[in-house]
């Protein structure tokens, strides 16, 4: 029995599908301790958009550490935090005409979500929050209350209340008009729906199965929230930082959420970091009302600011993500067309892509076949029925081709054509 099996909890998951010991990582590849390379289409569940050990970010981090820059600072003023805020304002917010104040809620995406939910309730004086079918927002109690996956919800061990799920885009395959049910409940005094403080939404549901909301659906949701005085929270933890093309996944819809949750690839280097962006008029916190010991991790500030300067001073990365995403999407659609009897579905936007199978057993076998061939992919969806592709945004054209060849071979190995 290995030390992992002896001491690590049964809750571990990814290591079950990839039973090797990894030692090094660079760019789009992880290397096992025996030296075997694996092309990474997982990218730390979206936390490594700029690849493993990105050399530009690594240089900035090493220089900061070597000069004894402050590592841990809670919410004290530091040079690293100032640089981050100035860079965020200059490279991200001002070019998009976004006016937000910044909450440092703690190190993870769930921290960003919890801060948004808590503040929405404080601002509005309401308790109820609207979430969507197949949503995933984190594993803490508040975030779980607005998550759809039943297995994850059951892990809470207590009733998850004050949240009401509504149908996500295409949940009824377009049979009913968008928001028919939601708006009827809002307008009907006999519906029993408590007046919501906020709506929380992912523009592309990653863990939920790579479900991409339509642009018009997102615009309609923003309009509905505005008309009913409901705060709109966009959870951009996995789909932000360029995953769908632009820095924010909601940009294409032309909407301006009241709050935005960011984490995962925000630091750019895999170092824990999260932000909750809020409209300035919503900033009604009392000092210390929401805090956390690890909300001032300066090394993450350093790499985040460097990533913004390096990749978001122009639109080159955005254009590259769109082009590579279209190439992968077309290849996945080719598999759909090649196996009509399997009833596959190609899904996604940008470099968040998925191939949906009829069940999780088939999707799992495809991922296992890909691992045998040197490619890391995971599954998602309520029954793990979607093969999920989240490669680094910086992967090369050759690595796109290599990954697609392995995916094609893996699907063929499972479906037997």
TrEMBL record:
Keywords: Aminotransferase, Antibiotic biosynthesis, Pyridoxal phosphate, Transferase. Gene3D superfamilies: Aspartate Aminotransferase, domain 1, Type I PLP-dependent aspartate aminotransferase-like (Major domain). GO terms for biological process: antibiotic biosynthetic process; ectoine biosynthetic process. CDD domains: OAT_like (cd00610). Its cofactor is pyridoxal 5'-phosphate. Its EC number is 2.6.1.76. GO terms for molecular function: diaminobutyrate-2-oxoglutarate transaminase activity; diaminobutyrate-pyruvate transaminase activity; pyridoxal phosphate binding. Pathway: Amine and polyamine biosynthesis; ectoine biosynthesis; L-ectoine from L-aspartate 4-semialdehyde: step 1/3. Belongs to the class-III pyridoxal-phosphate-dependent aminotransferase family. This is Diaminobutyrate--2-oxoglutarate transaminase. It comes from Amycolatopsis methanolica 239. The lineage of its organism: Bacteria, Bacillati, Actinomycetota, Actinomycetes, Pseudonocardiales.
